[in-house]
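User: Small ask, check this?
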Amino acid sequence: MGVNYLWGPNVMAKLGYEINKGLAGENTDANRWLLQLAYGF
């Protein structure tokens, strides 16, 4: 699940939430927020 936002003609931000169902108690089971910025594409 995520949201993209276009700040200008060449600047974009992306925010997402990743739901993981790995092994209990392991790093692969951790849910996390992700933020990505792109400039000049």
